[in-house]
Design brief:
The protein is α/β, with parallel strands linked by helices. The protein has five helices and eight strands; from the N terminus they run E-H-E-E-H-E-H-E-H-E-H-E-E. The structure holds NADP nicotinamide-adenine-dinucleotide phosphate (NAP). NADP nicotinamide-adenine-dinucleotide phosphate (NAP) binds next to helix 1.
Length: 217
């Protein structure tokens, strides 16, 4: 049985991914800022975690350490959107979005890496976006795009720096969540499919995936 920790698991794609992994028999830690109304049982454990708050992350590590020795899959899913166009040079928004979408995964990965290193088949999955692909950059949602480009760079660097833990990025496609809006073509469950596949199937470290296929950075 694989043990998975996923951030931003209280709603949206993160929640759908966590639920799908439980349905596939994984033991899932639902990490979220607010853990009311999260499932709790043999396979589902809520864990309080704000990716911008080092104290909250340290508490989550202690909580995890008391229950389990190894972590097989870390899914860095939590993120926020930024809407300003690049020509507004909105440094405040860039700083805020980078802190959640880039610094957050770096903090959480650092905190849980020792548990991943104890697993024989460990992996980190960064939920990124095609909007951060260098090959597809544009002026809109600038802070969000920068944060996902940086997350992709972190993915490649960490994958190349060691081979104990596989590290990949994934784009879930355009999904009908609070972030994606009502016009998006994919349901939450459809958005989760590619992430679940990377958690359970053979993967190549240092790659960017969508729908189980490698896509350009
Ligand atoms: N939706 C799309 O079309 C789409 C496309 C490409 C990529 N993505 C990526 O898919 C992932 C999930 O997005 P989504 O569409 O499900 O977004 P969403 O519905 O807005 O959900 C975002 C999740 O992130 C959590 N979160 C935000 N800040 C946090 C923090 N500081 N600490 C912990 N959790 C935090 C939220 O928790 P709260 O309830 O506490 O705010 C929520 O659970 C993101 O990485 C996003 O960039 C989405």
């Amino acid at each position: 049985m694989q043990t998975v920790l996923i951030t931003g698991a209280n709603r949206g794609i993160g929640r759908a991914t966590a639920d799908a992994l439980v349905a596939r028999g994984c033991k899932v830690y639902y990490a979220a800022r607010s853990i009311e109304n999260l499932p709790s049982g043999d396979l589902a454990t809520p864990i309080s975690l704000d990716v911008t708050d080092p104290t909250s992350i340290a508490r989550a590590v202690v909580f995890f350490e008391e229950r389990k020795e190894a972590l097989d899959v870390l899914i860095n899913n939590a993120a926020i959107i930024g809407r300003a166009d690049v020509t507004s040079f909105d440094v405040e928004e860039i700083t805020r979005v980078m802190d959640t979408n880039f610094n957050g995964p770096v903090r959480v990965t650092k905190a849980f890496f020792p548990f991943l290193e104890k697993s024989p088949s460990a992996r980190v999955i960064h939920v990124s976006s095609g909007m951060g692909a260098i090959s597809d950059l544009a002026g809109d949602h600038a802070a969000y795009r920068f944060s996902k480009s940086a997350l992709n760079a972190f993915t490649i660097s960490l994958a190349r720096a060691q081979d104990r833990v596989k590290v990949v990025a994934v784009c879930p496609g355009w999904v009908r969540s609070d972030m994606g809006g009502k016009s998006a073509p994919r349901s939450l469950e459809e958005g989760a499919v590619g992430i679940v596949g990377l958690a359970l199937n053979q993967i190549e470290s240092g790659k960017f995936y969508r729908d189980g296929r490698v896509i350009p950075w």
